[in-house]
Amino acid sequence: MADSKLKPRSQRDGEEGPDGGWGWVLLLAMFVSTSLVFGLMRSLGVFFVEFVQYFEESAQAISWISSIGLAAQQFFSPLGAALCNAYNTRLVVMAGGLLSGLGLILASQATCLVHLYLTMGLISGLGWGLVFTPMLATVMANFTRRRALAVGLGFSSIGLSSFAFNPLFQLLVETYAWRGALLILGGLSLNIVVCGALIRPECSSKAPVKVESQSKQSCSDMLQRVSSYLEVSLLCERPYLTYTLGVTFFNFGYFVPYFHLVAHSRQVGFSEYRAAFIMSAAGVTDIFGRIASGWFSDLGHFRIIHLLTLWTVLAGTFIILLPVSSLSGSYTALMIISLLYGFCSGALTSLVFAVVPMIMGVERMMGGLGLLQLIESSAGLLGTPLSGWLRDVTGNYVASFMVAGSFVLLGSLTMTTLPGYFSCTDPPPPQRPTLIENSETLHLELGPKNSYSSEFNHQAVEQTAR
User: Residues 377, 75: contact at Cβ < 8 Å?
Assistant: First the structure.
């Protein structure tokens, strides 16, 4: 009886276990949904110039639109993770897809910047927060040996959509103006609802026990249940806090090129389409970077944390070189540096999330990813406006890219302070702490709802034994 509870659902149904079966369908859903979240977010730089001209506001004020959207996506990720742990992942992702599309549709009717802050920023950001973490955790829980490759394949859609979306958005803006373009993008984002529908609903055979026990719960039991859904105990563990701090520094500078490189290229004298093509070309190498990085890390020749540090150092360096390469007005030099930056930024993204199960264990991955997104949301909120403010002060984007690259390098340095960083082998992930003695009911509630804990706990035990 006990052994049967530890087997993944796919094995119980007679299908192939982790690294196969329905996991590939979920990977396809993640491929589409992430392209409609981060691929779209990366391509909003095309609208940046249009908003500056239409609303006659500073670069800093316009930068708050994308910054609020990014920060909201990360800030509401713990909410998405907690709702998935407590209720149903499928419904949470579908609701997120609906909100993300609704925000863009409402943004097409905006008459002032505040409207864009609330629609493109807050409403769409909330939807993105309900989509990204649950989809990522669902895919990672369905892959073990090829987890980094699966994440790389899923995230490769971001580079592919960046390549396609930048010239497409420029064409939509010229054809339908920015209002019509946002309306079309809102309808396109509703496809996330279909991606969420592909997630299999979790087993809820013990739901009557949960309903009966809720009336008997004390306030302390309720607080502990919420704390468990959010995995708050991770905030007391040094490896998790160190890793989260490093990722937060990455977040200060990582998105700056995607929001300001098009504007920088146009400022130095390149045409609208040539400027948009720079980001499209970087999106192509981004795809190869994600897949190549995931494939190579799964070979096991080097520790993933060491490879992550390598890619972040290179990405930070190329961010600093982006404005330097265009000072002479050379389109070729700017294109080469953009291609190298695209490859390195894609390579590090595959590994940032692949390291997470090694830091906290598979069973705490959903809540841990949500907390990680929440903490780094402050950097996502401030990074782009800081870049816009530096542009307003200096008159160009050189200082903006210099500061952004420096933050990425600082995050790389922070990673080296992780416990056991200089060891040749990965330390075993920490185990979930034991809850209070009288929380038997709490254990019954968490069991059927948190599919990652019940279905994949045996994977974490096997990895620790190795």
Answer: yes
79 occurs within a structural domain: yes
Q: What is the mean pLDDT of residues 91-108?
A: 93
DSSP tag of 232: G
The closest alpha carbon to 195, from 122, 286, 121, 132, belongs to 132
Q: What's the CATH code of the domain at 183?
A: 1.20.1250.20
Give the distance from CA 224 to its chain's centroid. 27
Query: What is the secondary structure of 233-298 as a DSSP string?
Result: GGGG-HHHHHHHHHHHHHHHHHTHHHHHHHHHHHHTT--HHHHHHHHHHHHHHHHHHHHHHHHHHH
SS3 sequence of 418-441? CCCCCCCCCCCCCCCCCCCCCCHH
Count structural domains, the chain.
Answer: 1
Q: Which of 305, 315, 313 is nearest to 352 (CA)?
A: 305
Q: What is the pLDDT of residues 33-82, one digit of tens each?
A: 988 988 788 777 778 878 888 888 887 788 788 878 877 887 888 888 88
Q: Can you spell out the DSSP letters for 362-400?
A: GGGHHHHHHHHHHHHHHHHHHHHHHHHHHHHHHSSSHHH
Q: Identify residue 5 by its one-letter amino acid code.
A: K
Q: Indicate if the alpha-carbon torsion angle 296, 302, 303, 307 is positive or negative.
A: negative
Q: From residue 409, how far is each of 283, 309, 379 by CA, in Å?
A: 22, 9, 15
Collect all residues with Cβ–Cβ distance below 8 Å to 202 and sequence separation of at least 6. 88, 89, 448, 449, 451
Cα–Cα nearest to 152, from 367, 311, 361: 311
Judge whether 235 lies within some domain.
yes
Angstrom distance (rounded) from CA 206 to CA 443: 12
73 and 130 in contact (C-beta within 8 Å)?
Answer: no
Closest CA to 158 of 186, 136, 181: 136
* Residue 459 clears pLDDT 60, i.e. is over it: no
Task: Write the burial class of residue 84 (CB in 10 Å: 0-12 exposed, 13-18 middle, 19+ buried).
Answer: buried
Distance in Å from the first CA to the final CA of the chain: 25
> The whole model's pTM is what?
0.66
Domain span at 304? 2-204+228-454
**Considering the domain boundaries, does residue 147 fall inside one?**
yes
DSSP for 164-197, written as a single string: HHHHHHHHHHHHHHHHHHHHHHHHHHTHHHHHHH
Rounded CA gap, 82 and 78, in Å? 6
Residue 466 falls inside a structural domain: no
Locate 400 and state its tokens.
Answer: 């903006």
Tokens (6 digits) for 242: 């160190």
Please report the sign of the dihedral spanned by the C-alpha atoms of residue 23, residue 304, residue 420, residue 234: negative
Contact yes or no for 176/325 (Cβ under 8 A): no
